[in-house]
Amino acid sequence: MRALQFLFKTSPAVLLLVLCLRLGSGAAQDLVQEVISAKLTIDPVENSTNSHDVTVTVKSHVAKCLVVRVTLKAFNNIIFPYGNFLYTACLCDFSTSNFFWEIQATENGIIKGKAEVVSEENICPSDEEIYTIVYKVCIKREIIIR
What we know:
Immunoglobulin-like, 8 strands, alpha+beta, single chain, four-stranded antiparallel sheet, 2 helices
């Protein structure tokens, strides 16, 4: 039994390793912050039975400029009569921007919006500091036709 006791003793090196791993993972978790947030709204178009306006509102949560790409993906017989646009824009200093689509739906369906921070040049002013961390927000909404 005494021969196995050394296995249950914790050496100072192991304690130091556990402490470093614990501190390192805590510091990494503190670095994760919400860079952008997004909201997807769907509103019926007045005097139309199957047309809807879709808006994705993207808000920046950093004090620097960042390049945001916003896309929309639709399922179940949803049509983009004027095109399914991919938007790329510059958001600076806690700003908010809206992106718009018009859709037609003859039955219930699902829309997914995606806003992501991308590294793309010549979108933001050249004299601004650009925030280039990768960050993505996805939103899913159901369209209910009545």
